[in-house]
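About this split. The held-out portion is used to measure sequence recovery: a designer receives only the structure tokens and must propose an amino acid at every position. Recovery is the fraction of positions where the proposal matches the reference. Here is one held-out target exactly as it appears in the evaluation file.
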């Protein structure tokens, strides 16, 4: 797999495939290996493990010729440029199929390969705004806030990996390759299904709800401050049985007898008063203690964990969610794995993200059969750069 992707969405798609055995060759240049694409940073290491790195200056015709020779030996080409870039290089899907008739090509872009906005550049927060996610996750009567993270990027990456697997399945059955036009904008639009369904079915306009969306009937529902500095837990009561269990767990059975808290509708209507009562109870306990008491009573609750908390989480450690990778410049680094397990086998071993161009000798020498002196000449001319 040849990988032209950069930053998060594309690199995550190709990382998923690399993690499970695909040989992914990331194409870089010394000029652009900076910022998110700097091989010596933890950010790059997080999204590019298990890949190989080569350097090709695609501004040279000779570099594009070398790329096409690699295409002839590849199953997949992935890129997440704006639509004009590959075309400007003369590397359209139709052209690349001349070298590999059953090629699969994944093109990830902000707004797709067609439409009036196709040439617009976009990042995760941009797409979250366009797709309605920023609006829905803000608070009423306040400026749009959003979720504070490029949530769109890993979602787009997962769609990309799934699309490649589907195209490989299609090729196995039919012998035909596929061109995959993946729009990040449309990927985000798939995340607001409840709001769209509520409008189409009930003609109810979706409005910012913060942590209390209008379609959510649960109560109590949300975060509650606990003892300590910036310590919180979340509680979500979605049934009458859970409500009764909560009242018993917190030692206030009388709440369940109050008419104002009768049924989900009553608790929703008087949620401010209910939240104040519950916050008084959680405020006297650590988040871990409050969650333990509630979970033992059968009430859905969880600690609001920080990144440091997650790194030390005993449950994640027990499930081997983290893996340590030895990086030649960064040293040992901890990386996440996946939320699923294969009892009869999975990835045998993982490698840290590559250094810039560390696999030039293997790719240009072994795969393309170039002699060492030819590789040296291409380096001197700035083609392998």
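Reference sequence for scoring:
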């Amino acid at each position: 797999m040849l990988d032209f992707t950069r930053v998060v969405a594309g690199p995550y798609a190709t990382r998923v495939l690399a993690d499970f055995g695909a040989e992914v060759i990331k194409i870089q240049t010394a000029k652009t290996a900076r910022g998110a694409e700097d091989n010596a940073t933890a950010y790059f290491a997080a999204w590019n493990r298990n890949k190989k790195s080569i350097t090709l200056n695609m501004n040279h015709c000779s570099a594009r010729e070398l790329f096409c020779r690699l295409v002839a030996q590849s199953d997949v080409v992935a890129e997440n440029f704006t639509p004009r870039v590959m075309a400007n290089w003369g590397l359209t899907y139709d052209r690349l199929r001349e070298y590999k008739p059953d090629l699969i090509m994944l093109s990830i872009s902000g707004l797709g390969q067609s439409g009036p906005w196709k040439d617009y550049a976009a990042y995760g927060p941009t797409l979250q705004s366009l797709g309605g996610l920023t609006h829905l996750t803000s608070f009423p009567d306040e400026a749009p806030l959003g979720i504070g993270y490029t949530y769109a990027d890993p979602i787009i990456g997962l769609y990309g990996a799934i699309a490649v697997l589907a195209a490989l399945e299609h090729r196995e059955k039919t012998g035909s390759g596929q061109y995959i036009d993946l729009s990040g904008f449309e990927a985000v639009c798939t995340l607001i299904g409840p709001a769209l369904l509520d409008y189409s079915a009930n003609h109810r306009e979706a409005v910012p709800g913060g942590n209390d969306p209008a379609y959510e009937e649960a109560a109590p529902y949300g975060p509650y401050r606990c003892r300590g500095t910036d310590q919180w837990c979340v509680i979500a009561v979605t049934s009458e049985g859970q409500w009764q269990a909560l009242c018993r767990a917190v030692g206030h059975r009388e709440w369940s007898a109050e008419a104002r808290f009768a049924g989900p509708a009553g608790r929703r209507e008087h949620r401010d008063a209910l939240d104040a009562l519950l916050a008084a109870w959680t405020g006297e306990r650590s988040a871990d203690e409050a969650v333990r008491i509630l979970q033992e009573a059968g009430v859905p609750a969880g600690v609001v964990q920080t990144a440091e908390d997650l790194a030390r989480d005993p449950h994640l450690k027990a499930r081997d969610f983290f893996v340590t990778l030895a990086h030649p410049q960064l040293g040992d680094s901890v990386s996440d794995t996946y939320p699923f397990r294969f009892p009869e086998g999975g990835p045998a071993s993982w490698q840290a993200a590559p250094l810039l161009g560390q696999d030039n000798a293997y790719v240009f020498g072994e795969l393309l059969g170039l002699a060492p002196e030819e590789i040296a000449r291409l380096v001197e001319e700035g083609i392998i750069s």
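Annotator remark: The mean pLDDT is 93.
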